[in-house]
Automatic annotation (TrEMBL):
Enzyme Commission number: 3.1.30.1
Pfam (any one): S1-P1_nuclease
Gene source species: Papaver nudicaule (Iceland poppy)
Stated family: Belongs to the nuclease type I family.
Entries under Gene3D superfamilies matching the protein: P1 Nuclease
SUPFAM superfamilies per record: Phospholipase C/P1 nuclease
Keywords, ordered alphabetically: Disulfide bond, Endonuclease, Glycoprotein, Hydrolase, Metal-binding, Nuclease, Signal
Leading EC class: hydrolase
GO terms under biological process: DNA catabolic process
PANTHER family found in the cross-reference section: ENDONUCLEASE 1, ENDONUCLEASE 4
Name listed for the protein in its UniProt record: Aspergillus nuclease S1
Secretion signal span: 1-31
Domain of life: Eukaryota
């Protein structure tokens, strides 16, 4: 890492207005452990411009029929394999307890202190790798398919507020509590419980309907600050901004008022659901923005690192 990268001017809003949302006919959600990632990736893929859409299709293995979301949880499946053990710290960031801030040089490292080995560093890393795609197959240093899947997955993770959480409770993983009637923990509430409860209560158990509702709201631009979602100066500052947003939300909405052992239910669900849906939308919109930028033909200002 440490490559210098030119300005990446990102105008999400323009892309959305110009291209609209074309919902990819998703062939069903395969497993019930990956809803957030699937939604983020489906929203992102629906916002791709032609060049990026084609690049993504060509990088995906044939068996997914061009559906990026089908492989967006691949990095979770392989993180414990020996060959991929180096990726296990790339899914999250541990920040100092109660600090509620993200500082890249302080916080972005693995447990051994190796720099850049966190979700923000990983997004920079795999975005940089994908910038070589247009140079053709002569560059075999990187596996572009893996880079695409890692980037797509980590853009989901960095937007989940509790993936940027306190060190001592492992991002809420050790905060045991009940979600309605069953045992859970605070991290899992944000990974999955809120999404599943929303699907169950509001969308007749159909996660796809939930995702379509978020996608529609992206098209309709219901979030008043949406025009600023794409604002960040360059490849290296964007993930820092996303991580800072997450820890701030984790403090304000995740940890706040939660006592270990208690039962969280309607009140917590109703107040936190809008945060979860917005983060899924932001992750999807910003992933499309990065892919359009990296694979687009018009983007001269994006200079490839060496
Ligand atoms: C970047 O990716 C390469 C593999 O392509 C890996 O060896 C390296 O550890 C990664 N670094 C980060 C910060 O993700
Ligand atoms: C790239 O990675 C994918 C997924 O691990 C693998 O199936 C594929 O064979 C790799 N491609 C090359 C050229 O190594
Ligand atoms: C979509 O927007 C409508 C209108 O603001 C809102 O009632 C609904 O909860 C939103 N749904 C999602 C999933 O964001
Ligand atoms: Zn992950």
């Amino acid at each position: 890492m440490g490559d210098s990268v030119g300005l990446m001017r990102l105008s999400v809003w323009m892309h959305i207005c110009a291209f609209g949302i074309i919902l990819i006919g998703a062939p069903g959600v395969h497993a019930w452990s990956k809803e957030g990632h699937v939604m983020t990736c489906q929203i992102a893929q629906s916002l791709l411009e032609d060049d990026a859409a084609e690049a993504v299709r060509s990088l995906l293995p044939d068996y997914v029929n061009g559906d990026l979301s089908a492989l967006c949880t691949w990095p979770d499946q392989i993180r414990h394999w020996y060959k991929y053990r180096w990726t296990s710290s790339l899914h999250f960031i541990d920040t100092p307890d109660k600090a509620c801030t993200f500082d890249y040089s302080r916080d972005c490292h693995d447990p051994h202190g190796t720099e850049d080995m966190c979700v923000a560093g990983a997004i920079q890393n795999f975005t940089s790798q994908l910038m070589h795609y247009k140079q053709g197959s002569s560059d075999r240093r990187y596996n572009m398919t893996e880079a695409l899947l890692f980037l797509s997955h980590f853009m989901g993770d960095i937007h989940q507020p509790l993936h940027v959480g306190f060190t001592s409770d492992e991002g809420g993983n050790t905060i045991q509590l009940r979600w309605y009637k069953h045992k859970s923990n605070l991290h899992h509430v944000w990974d999955r419980e809120i999404i599943l409860t929303a699907a169950k209560e509001l969308y007749d158990r159909d996660v796809e309907l939930f995702q379509e509702d978020i996608a529609k709201n992206v098209t309709d631009g219901i979030w008043s600050d949406m025009s600023s979602w794409g604002e960040c100066d360059d490849l290296f500052s964007c993930p820092k901004k996303y991580a800072a947003e997450s820890i701030s939300l984790a403090c304000k909405w995740g940890y706040k008022g939660v006592t270990p052992g208690e039962t969280l239910a309607e009140k917590y669900f109703n107040s936190r659901l809008p945060i979860v849906t917005k983060r899924i939308a932001q992750g999807g919109v910003r992933l499309s923005m990065i892919l359009n930028s990296v694979f687009g033909n018009h983007n001269q200002e994006l200079s490839a690192p060496t």
